[in-house]
Amino acid sequence: MLTLILAAVGATTPTAVDAELAFGRDAQRNGQWTASRAYAHPDAVMFTPQAIRARDFLKGRKDPPAATRWSPNASYVSCDGRLAVNTGPWQSASGRENGFFTTVWSQEKGKWRWISDGRHTLKKALAARKTPIVRKASCRGRAPGPPLMAPPSTKTGPGGVAPDDFGRGYSQDRTLGWDWRVGPRGVRQFRTFLWTGRRYTLALNQTIGSK
């Protein structure tokens, strides 16, 4: 299980959208895995489809000849602007594969780092938005803590199946929370919660089947 409570120090710009776009540009210029290493948080997680530490997946991995292209269509941001969840379309370098991605970003000492990156393939490409939709959590009231997914049981399930992969986190001001769970068959659920000033709303709810 991975649980993160993330805060940041320093300037609040550029935004997570700016970071996502810069990440994509660096992937094209410097190589996909090179850029991924440069922007990754030390505890970042990827999905293959089971969860894996990015540092283990990326260590020594050679860049593909051409990088995937992606851009954010929506960004969900904490009140303090220091934690965000981006989602939008991606397309393989050949153009034959398409899908959507979801990336969690945290601002660390004035620099944005991604802490969770998941992708899913779709039969039909999603249209990219010229200007991403940005939904920011309310700064009103006192957010008690998002209704995050409960940790899975540590007991082995039927047929000896191991417990689900599981992770969650929230901003220091508790106005944005996220969690994910990957079942034994690789089906992943990812959720994002935003504080409205009175309650939490489920802003993003994705169920992603294994490829």
Estimate what percentage of residues fall within beta strands. 35-45%
The number of domains? 1
Q: How does the overall form come out from the CA principal axes?
A: globular
Characterize the main sheet.
8 strands, mixed
CATH architecture: Roll
Radius of gyration, whole Å: 17 Å
- State the oligomer: single chain
Which regions have little confidence, pLDDT < 50, spanning 5+ residues? 1-12
Separation of termini? 23 Å
CATH topology: Nuclear Transport Factor 2, Chain: A
Mean pLDDT: 88
Describe what this molecule looks like in 3D:
By secondary structure, this protein is mostly beta strands. It has a single domain (2-208), classed as Roll (Nuclear Transport Factor 2, Chain: A), CATH 3.10.450. It is built from 3 helices and 13 strands, in the order βααββαββββββββββ. It has helices at 16-30, 32-39, 54-58; strands at 2-6, 40-47, 51-53, 69-70, 74-77, 83-91, 98-108, 111-122, 133-136, 165-171, 176-182, 188-195, 200-208. Strands 2, 3, 4, 5, 6, 7, 8 and 9 form an 8-stranded mixed beta sheet that branches. It has a 5-stranded mixed beta sheet with strand order 1-10-11-12-13, with no helix packed on it. The longest helix has 15 residues, at 16-30. It starts with a strand and ends with a strand. Residues 1-12 have low confidence and may be disordered.
